[in-house]
Automatic annotation (TrEMBL):
Annotated EC: 4.2.1.51, 5.4.99.5
Name the record gives this protein: Bifunctional chorismate mutase/prephenate dehydratase
Domain ACT per the UniProt entry, residue ranges: 280-357
NCBIfam families tied to this protein: CM_P2, PRK11898.1
UniProt entry tagged with the keyword Iron: no
Known function: Catalyzes the Claisen rearrangement of chorismate to prephenate and the decarboxylation/dehydration of prephenate to phenylpyruvate.
Stored CDD domains: ACT_CM-PDT, PBP2_PDT_1
UniProt cross-references to PANTHER family, sorted A to Z: PREPHENATE DEHYDRATASE P PROTEIN, PREPHENATE DEHYDRATASE-RELATED
UniProt entry keywords in alphabetical sequence: Amino-acid biosynthesis, Aromatic amino acid biosynthesis, Cytoplasm, Isomerase, Lyase, Multifunctional enzyme, Phenylalanine biosynthesis
Superkingdom classification of source: Bacteria
Example of a GO biological process term: L-phenylalanine biosynthetic process
Reaction catalysis annotation: prephenate + H(+) = 3-phenylpyruvate + CO2 + H2O; chorismate = prephenate
Stretches assigned to the Chorismate mutase domain: 1-88
Length: 362
């Protein structure tokens, strides 16, 4: 044990230096906040956040892992933002939901959070200024897009300002042992992501949709024979035991989240931006063959990569569809502007949903 003391003394000294450096960094963030408030500047700047994280990772020589370093700096930036201006982040609640966990991962522990009971309510809260930003699930690697989230963009002028991918691990949570569970509650997407596990282990149980995974745990906590499918954070938060862990059917079950606000992120450049659009072909789709190909050609001819396309009914008239697309590049890029100008010549609707940093691979 005596051999440990010199090392611990060095650690203690480094901790004192770290605390001093952290506070000096936050004092600079506070000064930036004063300037932003005086000039009505944006407090949260996604492109600056991503640029800082990329620089930090690029200078990392180990042994700390890049993701751990990113997590440390996210908390530093969270504390810095809170000193610049207290921000409120809306998310799909109740507390301890997967979206709550994603919001905390993105914005850190220093900001204020507000649980909402629907995606429509989340959009309304940001539009009315009751929340500064919001985190919404947009698609899952197993079950596809969250349709309510996509449809909410049709009428809203809010922009996608950032994105986040989070690995989702589901647990079976109940006060009952497995053999006594008769009903399982959860969000429809969570039940679908655990469909085969539930069929194998609880073939007789009723599967009942709840408004969220957290709400499912609340129900299971007070109902005999009930269980919930949710994350372990919800089990810990509501004090209900975990009966089985990692019950999702796919080990790489991942959900993509959008962060929405009033102003999209500025360009990073160098192939590190993405943009989302809502496009309608109108009568073009019904009257001409190859109309979808015609829509994609202005992008392809300018080297703009399409990473996602999905159609949704417009609900204005039968067989009329909107197309949601994700592409590489920023809205302000000259090739993007040229492609959009060509699209507007024959598409009745070309709506920019936002530009934001692409997810870093490091």
């Amino acid at each position: 044990m005596m051999d440990l003391e010199p090392i611990r003394t060095q650690i203690d000294e480094l901790d004192r230096q770290l605390v001093d450096i952290i506070n000096r960094r936050l004092m600079l963030a506070q000064k930036i906040g004063e300037i932003k408030r005086a000039t009505n500047g944006e407090i949260y700047v996604p492109e600056r956040e991503e640029a800082v994280l990329r620089k930090v990772v690029a200078s990392n020589t180990g042994p700390v892992k890049n993701e751990a370093l990113r997590a440390i700096y996210r908390e530093l930036m969270s504390a810095g933002i809170a000193l610049e201006k207290p921000l409120c982040i809306a998310y799909l609640g109740p507390e301890a939901s997967n979206t709550h966990a994603a919001a905390m991962k993105k914005f850190g522990a220093s900001l204020d959070y507000r649980a909402m009971d629907s995606v429509a309510g989340i959009f309304a809260a940001v539009e009315k200024g009751e929340a500064d930003y919001a985190v919404i699930p947009i698609e899952n690697s197993t079950e596809g897009s969250v349709r309510e989230a996509l449809d909410s963009f049709v009428q809203s002028d809010l922009k996608v300002v950032a994105q986040l991918y989070v690995e989702i691990n589901h647990a079976l949570i109940s006060n009952e042992p497995l053999e006594k569970i008769t009903t399982v509650y959860s969000k429809d997407q969570a039940l679908a992501q655990c469909r085969y596990w539930l069929q194998r282990h609880l073939p007789q149980a009723r599967l009942v949709e709840a408004s969220s995974t957290s709400r499912a745990v609340q129900i299971a906590a007070g109902e005999p024979g009930a269980a919930a499918v949710a994350g372990e954070l919800a089990a810990e938060f509501y004090g209900v035991p975990v009966v089985a862990r990692q019950i999702q059917d796919k080990t790489d079950n991942t959900t993509r989240f959008f962060i929405i606000g009033h102003k999209a992120a500025g360009p990073i450049g160098g192939g590190k931006d993405m943009s989302s659009f809502l496009i309608s072909l109108g009568d073009e789709a019904a009257s001409q063959s190859g109309s979808l190909l015609k829509m994609l050609m202005p992008l392809a001819e300018r080297g703009i990569n399409l990473s996602k396309i999905e159609s949704r009914p417009s609900k204005l008239r039968p067989w009329d569809y909107y197309f949601f697309i994700d592409v590489s590049g920023h809205y302000e890029d000259p090739p993007m502007q040229a492609a959009l100008a060509e699209l507007r010549e024959f598409c009745p609707l070309v709506k920019w949903l936002g530009s934001y940093p692409a997810v870093s691979s490091t």
